[in-house]
């Protein structure tokens, strides 16, 4: 009875969390343009505010009041509706799962979304499609909340596509800018391509598991005695078990959404969208959906080491490659985009090196801890970048410099965020990164080395950005007006700044663990010393190079030679894709297909039409319009039939 | 009283039919064509009456048919004349060769 009451309560709370943004989207999308032109921002923000409050309340209740039974966090189903029933055993449900990761995610998503809503009030002011913008934001928030609350894998897939669509709409928000249109198409196609893998993965897992429901799927595929487990591990394709196939294909979808190498090419281009959107979608929430997906299916991943190996290496390579590229980019948002990719790579390999349960699950906890802290400081960085771009009217680092006196609030906020992402104590990033480094140190020394090097690079490029924007030279733009922007732009910066300092103190390790049992972690001062010293050294190095305009940065670039050039060109990944699509696919598949279409299919259809036309040309003279001619035909016909029936048809 | 043999009557009706057919094909005036159609119909009527009288003298089916045909012929004449009048209003002519728009 008590159990029932508890579930009812969650349903009461979680339904409005989902339905408020949806209602807001419908309201603004349908009636906004005509009737709510000025109120749309306030309506969106108010509904988001309510959603955030409810989310925090629900999560607080789950984590601190009634989520634990005997010291273990439970997986609850708040509600479940049968949506499509194919057969008694196979149906698609619409439900909400309540467990540590979903609760953590709804807080992150709704909170960051609220901050972006508030920020956009100032940033997007006077924009022609202001209402549409808020409608899209609501759509995105709805889809993302639906994604994290999904109780079965197919429901998640539906919301997964919905976030993809809203991301597409928002990247292409400035639809009269050709580069934005191209970028939105690219993002959609790349993620859609990856989602194809996800769909096949879903089919594989659910075919062998016999269910789409997460809890049941995990239960069946992790029990070594169950028939489903035996069938999926014994069945194999190309010498690899179907379990590994299924998980890897699902991971392809996750990698596409999370911009993992080599499917990352859409993320830097996605920066064409409005900056607050980048903060929300392409930094804090949607791009971590891949991490969330792997975490959601983690118990299954944990029993399949090859799949985890792939997750680990894809994550590690993405983290490293993105960090190297970020050092060479000059577009402020692109640097941040690559930094996002690098940090998500961090989360990925932390999941990959983790195992299920207890101390072995440290990587899992660390990964989600990093997801949590990263959301705050990365969205802060993007919003800060938004203020700067708003003021300078350029994305290029060359046009910036010496802005620290003009925009004190942004300056402090950006500095805090840089310190947080670099992992300097006591800022948020330090704690989560430390957990990841500890976890990787205990499981794989090569990964640890990559992680450490990436951390150093991260500190370097973030402070390269910081010094280039705020120091380097005297401000070239002299504005007397308020460079920090309106109050609605300052408030989110300040709130997120506080979060970036304090988020590390939230005891995520005690709340989010692979098996639900709170994990006791302890800081090893000696262990932390190495990364801290290296990071401080990197910051110092960046300060030497970029604080004053001197030639050292250029010399450095020359010293690295072709490697530097390759990194500036993003290691030619885009060019490789273009080569594969333009040269290989177009020539080997596209052109033959076009030839067949033109010369065989079209020729057949055209031939039929031409023959018909020719025959009709021959006989159309018979329809002359002369009534007497018709009567003659008629009479000859009758006479012919008479002859036929009377004399010949004997 | 000697009776007229059936073949004589059929000969008359056949002659009437082909006279009507000839008129229908050669005349360009639509009134004349209508008259030719009436001739054809009447030849059919004669056939009906003759066959009824000579083959089934107890029955009256052929006579009924004849009455039907006369009725329908009257209606048909009314419709045809209406068409001809309309054609005359639009074309200022009742020559069939002047009204050949309805073609490919």
From TrEMBL, chain B:
Transmembrane segments: 6-25, 63-85
Principal cellular location given in the protein's record: membrane
Recorded coiled-coil stretches: none
Keyword Cell membrane part of the UniProt annotation: yes
Presence of the UniProt keyword Transmembrane helix in the record: yes
Topological relation to the membrane, as annotated: Multi-pass membrane protein
Assigned EC number: 7.1.1.-
Reaction it catalyzes: a quinone + NADH + 5 H(+)(in) = a quinol + NAD(+) + 4 H(+)(out)
Record keywords: Cell membrane, Membrane, NAD, Oxidoreductase, Quinone, Translocase, Transmembrane, Transmembrane helix, Transport
Entries under Pfam families matching the protein: Oxidored_q2 (PF00420)
Subcellular location: Cell membrane; Membrane
Gene Ontology molecular functions: NADH dehydrogenase (quinone) (non-electrogenic) activity
InterPro entries: NADH_UbQ_OxRdtase_chain4L/K (IPR001133), NUOK/Mnh_C1-like (IPR039428)
Quaternary context: NDH-1 is composed of 14 different subunits. Subunits NuoA, H, J, K, L, M, N constitute the membrane sector of the complex.
Protein role: NDH-1 shuttles electrons from NADH, via FMN and iron-sulfur (Fe-S) centers, to quinones in the respiratory chain. The immediate electron acceptor for the enzyme in this species is believed to be a menaquinone. Couples the redox reaction to proton translocation (for every two electrons transferred, four hydrogen ions are translocated across the cytoplasmic membrane), and thus conserves the redox energy in a proton gradient.
Family as reported in the entry's similarity comment: Belongs to the complex I subunit 4L family.
Protein name: NADH-quinone oxidoreductase subunit K
Gene this chain is encoded by: nuoK
């Amino acid at each position: 009875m008590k159990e029932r009451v508890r579930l009812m309560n969650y349903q009461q709370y979680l339904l409005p969390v989902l339905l408020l943004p949806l209602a807001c989207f419908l309201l603004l999308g349908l009636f906004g343009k005509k009737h709510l032109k000025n109120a749309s921002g306030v309506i969106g923000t108010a509904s988001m505010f309510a959603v955030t409050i409810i989310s925090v309340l629900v999560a607080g209740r789950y984590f601190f009041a009634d989520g634990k039974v005997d010291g273990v966090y439970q997986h609850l189903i708040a509600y479940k509706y049968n949506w499509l029933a194919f057969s008694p055993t196979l149906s698609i449900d619409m439900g909400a799962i309540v467990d540590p990761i979903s609760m953590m995610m709804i807080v992150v998503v709704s909170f960051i979304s609220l901050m972006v809503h508030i920020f956009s009030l100032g940033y997007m002011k006077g924009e022609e499609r202001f209402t549409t913008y808020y409608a899209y934001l609501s759509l995105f928030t709805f889809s993302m909340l639906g994604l994290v609350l999904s109780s079965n894998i197919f429901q998640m897939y539906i919301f997964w596509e919905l976030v993809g669509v809203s991301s597409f709409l928002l990247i292409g928000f400035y639809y009269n800018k050709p580069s934005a249109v191209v970028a939105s198409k690219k993002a959609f196609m790349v993620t859609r391509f990856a989602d194809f893998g996800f769909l096949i993965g879903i089919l594989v897992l659910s075919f062998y598991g016999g269910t789409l429901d997460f809890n049941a799927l995990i239960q069946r595929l992790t029990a070594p005695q169950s028939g489903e487990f035996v069938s999926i591990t014994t069945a194999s394709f190309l010498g690899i078990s179907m379990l590994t196939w299924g998980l890897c294909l699902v991971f392809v979808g996750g990698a596409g959404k999370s911009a993992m190498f080599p499917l990352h090419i859409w993320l830097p281009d996605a920066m064409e969208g409005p900056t607050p959107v980048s903060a929300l979608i392409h930094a804090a929430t949607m791009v971590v959906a891949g991490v969330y997906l792997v975490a959601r299916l983690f118990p299954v991943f944990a029993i399949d080491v090859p799949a985890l190996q792939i997750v680990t290496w894809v994550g590690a390579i993405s983290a490293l490659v993105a960090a190297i590229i970020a050092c060479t980019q000059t577009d402020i948002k692109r640097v941040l985009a690559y930094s996002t990719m690098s940090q998500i790579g961090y989360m990925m390999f932390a999941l990959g090196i983790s195992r299920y349960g207890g101390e072995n699950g440290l990587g899992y906890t660390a990964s989600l801890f990093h997801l949590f802290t990263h959301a705050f400081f990365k969205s802060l960085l993007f919003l800060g970048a938004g203020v700067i771009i708003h003021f300078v009217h350029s994305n290029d680092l060359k046009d910036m410099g010496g802005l620290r006196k003009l925009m004190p609030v942004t300056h402090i906020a950006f500095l805090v965020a840089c310190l947080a992402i670099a992992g300097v104590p006591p800022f948020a990033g330090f704690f989560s990164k430390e957990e990841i480094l500890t976890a990787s140190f205990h499981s794989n020394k090569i990964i640890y080395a990559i992680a450490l090097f990436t951390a150093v690079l991260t500190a370097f490029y973030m402070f390269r950005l910081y010094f280039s924007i705020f120091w380097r030279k005297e401000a070239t733009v002299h504005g007397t007006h308020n460079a920090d922007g309106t109050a609605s732009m300052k408030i989110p910066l300040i709130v997120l700044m506080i979060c970036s300092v304090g988020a590390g103190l939230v005891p995520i390790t005690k709340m989010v663990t692979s098996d639900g049992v709170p994990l006791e972690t302890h800081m090893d001062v000696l262990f932390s010393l190495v990364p801290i010293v290296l990071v401080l050294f990197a910051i110092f190095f960046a300060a030497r190079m970029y604080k004053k305009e001197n030639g050292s940065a250029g010399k450095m670039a020359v010293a690295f030679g072709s490697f530097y050039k390759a990194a500036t060109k993003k290691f030619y990944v885009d060019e490789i894709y273009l080569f594969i699509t333009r040269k290989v696919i177009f020539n080997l598949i596209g052109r033959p297909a076009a030839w067949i279409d033109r010369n065989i299919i079209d020729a057949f259809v055209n031939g039929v039409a031409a023959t018909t036309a020719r025959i009709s040309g021959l006989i159309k003279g018979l329809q002359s319009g002369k009534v007497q001619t018709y009567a003659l035909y008629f009479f000859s016909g009758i006479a012919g039939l008479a002859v036929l029936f009377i004399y010949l048809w004997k | 009283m000697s009776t007229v043999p059936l073949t004589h009557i059929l000969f008359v009706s056949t002659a009437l039919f082909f006279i009507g057919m000839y008129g229908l094909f050669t005349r360009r005036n639509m009134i004349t064509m209508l008259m030719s159609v009436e001739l054809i119909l009447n030849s059919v009527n004669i056939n009906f009456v003759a066959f009824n009288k000579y083959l089934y003298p107890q029955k009256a089916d052929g006579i009924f048919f004849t009455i039907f045909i006369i009725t329908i012929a009257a209606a048909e004449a009314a419709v045809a004349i209406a068409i001809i009048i309309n054609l005359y209003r639009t074309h200022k002519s009742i020559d069939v060769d002047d009204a050949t728009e309805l073609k490919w």
